[in-house]
Amino acid sequence: MLLLNHSNYELECGTDEAGRGCLAGPVTAAAVILPDNFKNSILNDSKQISEKKRFLLKPIIEKQALSFNVAHVFQEEIDSINILNASILAMHKSIELLKPQPEFIIVDGNKFKPYNNIPFETIIKGDGKYLSIAAASILAKTYRDLYMKKIHEEFPMYNWKQNKGYPTKEHRAAIKKYGITKYHRKSFRLLPEQLKLDL
Fold first, then answer.
1. Alpha helix locations (H) across 117-159?
2. pLDDT in tens, 42-74
3. Which residue among 24, 52, 77, 133 is least packed, with the fewest CB closer than 10 Å?
4. CA 110 to CA 188: how far, in whole Å?
5. Per-residue pLDDT, 194
6. Residue ranges of the RNase H type-2 domain (predicted)?
7. What pTM did the predictor assign?
8. Is it true that the peptide bond before 119 is cis, omega within 30 degrees of 0?
9. For residue 5, what pLDDT is reported?
10. What residues does each domain of the chain span?
11. Residues flagged as binding site
């Protein structure tokens, strides 16, 4: 059973990101403030539920949240500031546009940087413990998946609509065959050592 609040603050937002381990595309974060009376029996960490359920939950969260926002940080910025900083930046960007602003922030994972002097707590596996982080994980994942499906049309040989930019065998084979695109993260090890790419 996921809990609603971690703190005693009324406006507590949960934040989480998707796409951290991908070879292509943005890292996407969401921030969500849920009302006190929010209940949903299928909401859970996005990795624990099917794609169909995630897309079922997306409009429910958007409709019932007091406030939510989603932000992408793209591959050029990931390459310039590294994936950890890019993940935190995406979370900050998603929190920045919340209206009202949160009084407390709960973050999935163990890394975060202070945002606007708002108190926060990092919670390992928080997306499986708190509803607002689970809701943020669903929005981050669904918005990112929709983006990857869109850029799939431009470069269908990488099959991003299926693998979403993650390092599957098929994705790595396509990189070996066709090289990289403007959407690939050049700072990532795109191929195992034995399959060196001339970048």
1. 131-152
2. 999 899 999 999 999 999 999 999 999 999 999
3. 52
4. 22
5. 45
6. 10-199
7. 0.94
8. no
9. 87
10. 12-152
11. 16-17, 108
Q: Name the superfamily (CATH) of residues 12-152.
A: Ribonuclease H-like superfamily/Ribonuclease H (3.30.420.10)
Q: Is 17 helix (H, G, I), strand (E, B) or coil?
A: strand
Q: How far is residue 16's CA from residue 106's CA, in Å, rounded to a whole number?
A: 9
Could you say which DSSP state residue 101 is in? P
Helix (H) or strand (E) holding 36: none
Residues 158 and 179: their CA atoms lie apart, in Å, by: 10
pLDDT in tens, 122-148: 999 999 999 999 999 999 999 999 999
Phi-psi region of 116 (alpha: psi -120 to 50; beta: other; left: phi over 0): left
SS3 assignment, position 91: helix
Binding residues for a divalent metal cation: 16-17, 108
Residue entry with tokens 């001339």? 198
Tokens of 92: 């900050």
